[in-house]
Design brief:
four-stranded antiparallel β-sheet, single chain, 35% helix, alpha+beta, 16% strand
């Protein structure tokens, strides 16, 4: 973190008769860390924010809703980066496919009104909190820059998750972030029809849902399983 931030902020507020800086707030500021984003985070967040504004301008939804959806996809992309060859499930209903679900159900069959249990791949609450806290800081930094707001975003230290500093008005926001993804879409790839042999007989198609490894993870084209509404409702 820039060493000037705590000192400048403290001096500015100390000159104000309206604000008294407690030792606790001073400690939170001194422990703040500069946000350093990776090239991947920089590019993806910028792309998603631009896409959100473009979509909102089309009139289908408000910019607030579009940005919320963009941020949710930003967090979800972090989960996808931790994919493994294990944890996939084979669905034989319709076109054979392998799904990587984040809830305990086959997503395609659920849309057709049929429940088939599949072990979820939902990340632990601890990792969700860490990812959301960091990525929200990245997202807001990019959003402020696009909107021409000269705000500086810092990573906080418990119990402060994030600090937002307005250099012109000498105002700081200390924030605690509550993490909960709005939606985590399952991943899917087309699959060959799986077969099985019983007692050495001729192979027959697998007719039931079953766990399956995905040996072609790095060479397969992955798809988001996105349900579509027959009638689009404007909000």
């Amino acid at each position: 973190m820039s060493e000037e931030f705590p000192k400048i902020f403290e001096e500015a507020l100390s000159e104000s008769s309206e604000v008294e800086i407690s030792d606790w707030v001073k400690g939170a500021i001194e422990k703040a860390r500069e946000l350093v984003m990776s090239p991947y985070e920089d590019e993806l967040s910028s792309t998603l924010i631009q896409s959100a504004f473009d979509y909102a301008e089309s009139g289908y939804c408000s910019s607030n809703m579009a940005l919320a959806a963009a941020f949710d996809l930003f967090v979800t992309a972090q989960y996808y980066s931790n994919l493994t060859h294990k944890g996939w499930h084979y669905c034989p209903i319709g076109e054979p496919a392998l799904f990587f679900p984040f809830t305990n159900v086959c997503p395609r069959c659920a849309l057709n009104g049929s429940f088939h249990f599949e072990m979820a791949n939902k990340p632990g609450s601890g990792s969700i909190g860490q990812a959301t806290s960091r990525l929200l800081s990245v997202f807001l930094t990019q959003l402020f820059a696009r909107m021409g707001r000269d705000f500086r975003v810092y990573r906080g230290f418990e119990p402060i998750d994030m600090l937002i500093y307005d250099e012109h008005k000498n105002v700081v926001l200390l924030a605690e972030i509550k993490a909960a993804p709005l939606a985590t879409l399952p991943l899917v790839i087309p699959s060959d029809e799986m077969t099985e042999s019983v007692n050495g007989e001729e192979p027959i198609p697998v007719s039931s849902h079953s766990p399956s490894d995905n040996p072609f993870l790095t060479s397969s084209e992955l798809f988001l399983f996105l349900p579509l509404r027959k009638e689009f409702i404007r909000y």
